[in-house]
Write a structure and sequence with these properties.
Elements lengths: L8 H13 L3 H7 L1 E4 L7 H10 L3 E4 L7 H14 L5 E4 L1 E3 L2 E2 L11 H6 L3 H18 L3 E2 L27 H16 L4 E2 L1 E4 L20 H6 L3 H7 L8 E4 L25 H11 L5 E4 L5 H4 L4 H11 L4 E3 L3 H16 L5 H15 L10 H18 L8
Parallel strand pairs: 1-2, 1-11, 2-3, 6-7, 8-9, 9-10
Antiparallel strand pairs: 4-5
Helix pairs in contact: 1-14, 2-13, 6-7, 6-15, 7-9, 10-12, 12-13
Length: about 400
Amino acid sequence: MQALNRPDLETTQARLTETLLALPLEQQIGQLLYIGLPGTEFDEETRALVTEIMPGGVIIFGRNVAAPAQLRGLLDSVREVVPTEPLFGVDQEGGLVDRLRKICTPMPSARTIRQHGDLAAARMLGQITGEVLRMLGFNMNFAPVMSIMTDDRDLLSNGLYSRSYGRSPGEVLGYTMVYLRGLQGTGLLGCAKHFPGIGAGEIDSHDEMPIIQLTHDDLIAQDLAPYIELFQREDNMVRALMVSHGGFPNIDIHRGTAGGRLVPASINQEIVTHLLREELGYEGLVLTDDMEMGAIAKHYQIEDAVRLAIEAGEDMLLICARPELIRRGYQSLLQAARAGVLTAERIGVSLRRITAYKALARPPLPFDAARFGQLCEETAALNRKLNYTYGGKI
């Protein structure tokens, strides 16, 4: 993170905090939301959504990507409308989760890199990804995945088979650190996921809530071990963290109450506040996974889910697809704030964390078609080095 420690960082953070705290309540609530856009163009529908929500972040998916210049134009159009610079993020992991494959050479998966034992390849992937994203207008990447995938866990249908850098806490820690150095050394911010670890879940949280039957001590010794090591580093490498929708019955106090239900980690105060903040001492930005995923949507109305997420201690909530749900989530939080249920003090806590993260964000690089082409060639060379072919077994 040294490349991000600008001399005026504290001044920038103070200025941003003052700006956000001075926003009207409607725009302060918008800062808590990280939203998806409908399509490839900044048309009237998209403009209306963005101007209503004034979001703190915008996440891009494959549906938004047609060409490099088009994508850069879409993000720049959002920048022109939103008065405070948003976070612009994407899940650009490589492998199966590669939102840019239409416009850039497909990037190798974490598993492929780990199977080759190639730390240099992890660093190079981070460097290429960071420069590509900054050129396209992004300032954030929702990567790396820090799930531990043992041989037994590889057999589970949780969608994480190719997305993990390791079979042990040490492997995950090593590759995560090297990847983040490469990525964040370009000025592009990372986000570790999916806390507190869902590698042991038997199903994909896109479909339903995975149940992780590990005890607190098991989690500390295995899935949480890489996070704990990173949290204790002086260079503060992990500045943002995504919380999963996994269910953890052995560390969820709600599960033991009469009639209690198992609450997903992302909206569970026991996980977000008590475990992450208080026990592990994490002070950075915390975001939910997509609130439209089946693990949440099949059990909660969006109005209830967003309020529970904020009560749990989340700073930003991802609502990634349907404009109707984005608006409903926004209105739910706004009504709670107007009624005093969501207090100004609680909003201010998250706004300060958001500004601390945004203060690190670099402006986009100028789009350079020739350099973009070179980066695609560098990706192709990396794939050849790893014997990686997109579409094959990864």
